[in-house]
Amino acid sequence: MSDPFEFKTEFAIEDETALRALFPPTHDMAKVKCLDHLDPHAKAFVARSPFLCIGTQAPDGGADVSPRGDPCGFVKVLDDRTLAIPDRPGNNRLDTLSNIVANPSVGLLFMVPGFDETLRINGTARVTTDPDVLALMSVQERLPRVAIIVTVQEMYLHCAKAFRRSDLWNPEARQDRGEMPSLSKMIMDQTVGAPEDPEAMAEIDEKLEEGYKASMY
């Protein structure tokens, strides 16, 4: 392991006044662009989005961010202030759902492939088994076990700078996945130890892919 990082406390920013002194004033448009509901542009963005990240907070104050993805329009707009997000099969850690049950505050970041802008929504969430809601989210005739209902408190469009800096959607910027080990090998290296035999490792990777196909929905 590398040497531990030493945080120099003399450079720490410990209050908002000191923080804001380092930056120019907030742009007027950044202040007024926040809405407390979903306008037609936000609804159109949600309908186009196949992917979002949801941020939650655990009872002990720990933070968590989880990805959610499905075909475009998988998040349903129930009204101008309410969204429904299906919970698809995963690893059953239930981090996001457990956090919501304990603390309803959530933050959402919607992305659309090819768009440099994102849609940010902050609000509160609840977990439901309402069959009428779940019926809206059937894929391959399978319903999610639960859905996340989000009440919008703040919504705004976020500018393109981060995506343009990262060159995220540029095909020429794509990296070779083969330059890093498979997910199975990395997790096994981190835990029980991966087999040294390449054929045995390839068999494990193949089983992971089979698992994806069998349990996506």
TrEMBL record:
InterPro entries: Pyridox_Oxase_FMN-dep, Pyridox_Oxase_N, Split_barrel_FMN-bd. It comes from the Bacteria. Coiled coil: none annotated. Pfam families: PNPOx_N. SUPFAM superfamilies: FMN-binding split barrel. Residues 38-159 form the Pyridoxamine 5'-phosphate oxidase N-terminal domain. PANTHER family: FAD-BINDING, PUTATIVE (AFU_ORTHOLOGUE AFUA_6G07600)-RELATED. This is Pyridoxamine 5'-phosphate oxidase N-terminal domain-containing protein. It comes from Shimia isoporae.
